[in-house]
Amino acid sequence: MSQDIDYGNLMHTAMRGLIKTVLTSVSENGLPGAHHFFITFDTRQNGVEMADWLRERYPEEMTIVMQHWFENLEVGDSGFAITLNFGDAPEPLYIPYVAIKTFVDPSVEFGLRFESAEDEDDEVPIAEAPIEIEAEQDEHHDADVVSLDSFRK
Questions:
Q1: Considering the chain, what percentage of its residues have pLDDT values greater than 70?
Q2: C-alpha dihedral over 102, 120, 149, 6, to 10 degrees?
Q3: Fewer CB atoms < 10 Å away: N or C end of the chain?
Q4: What is the pLDDT of residues 88-133, one digit of tens each?
Q5: Which of 40, 14, 37 is CA-nearest to residue 26?
Q6: 52 near 81, Cβ under 8 Å?
Q7: Per-residue CA distances from 151 to 11, 98, 131, 148 (Å)
Q8: Any idea what DSSP says for residue 79?
Q9: What is the reported pLDDT for 3?
Q10: Which of 39-43, 82-86, 94-98 is predicted least confidently?
Q11: Are 100 and 117 in contact (CB under 8 A)?
Q12: Nearest Cα residue to 91 out of 62, 125, 60, 124
């Protein structure tokens, strides 16, 4: 009875749990300091709820920014709801965690990227954490970037 440990899916589950924990804290206490998030998600994923005009504009993926103005952040077990401002028009969104492709907090040079088999030409899904952030870096604060490529078969 040979069964492999699915490290890719285990890593994805842990990383999505981290996002849930962070968003729960923000929903209870607000964004601390200069923290803000760029969240890219697959708009085609089952469970994504968004206005039709947004889905037409972003038929495959969309990046939202949680920074100065957002409201109604509700964090659940399988996803989160949020209302964001699109050109002075508040729009509610629901984003399942499985739809998230990247989660980045540039204020601390932290990021997560979820890769799928279609991203890697039929390879097993893997997680890379953290991703490299394109930002000017203070000479006293360099980010360590770890790639899991070296662990692939």
A1: 74
A2: 80
A3: N
A4: 889 999 999 999 999 999 889 899 998 765 554 443 333 344 444 4
A5: 37
A6: no
A7: 13, 23, 16, 5
A8: E
A9: 85
A10: 82-86
A11: no
A12: 62
Q: Residue 147: is its pLDDT beyond 70? A: no
Residues comprising the chain, all counted: 153
Q: Indicate the pTM of the whole model.
A: 0.73
| Residue 53 dihedral angles phi and psi, to the nearest 5° | -65, -30
**Positive or negative, the Cα torsion across 114, 119, 125, 129?**
negative
Mean pLDDT, rounded, for 9-27: 92
Residue 43 CA to its chain's centroid (Å)? 13
Give the integer Cα–Cα distance in Å for 146 and 50.
34
Q: What is the SS3 string spanning 92-140?
A: EEEEEHHHEEEEEEHHHCEEEEECCCCCCCCCCCCEECCCCCCCCCCCC
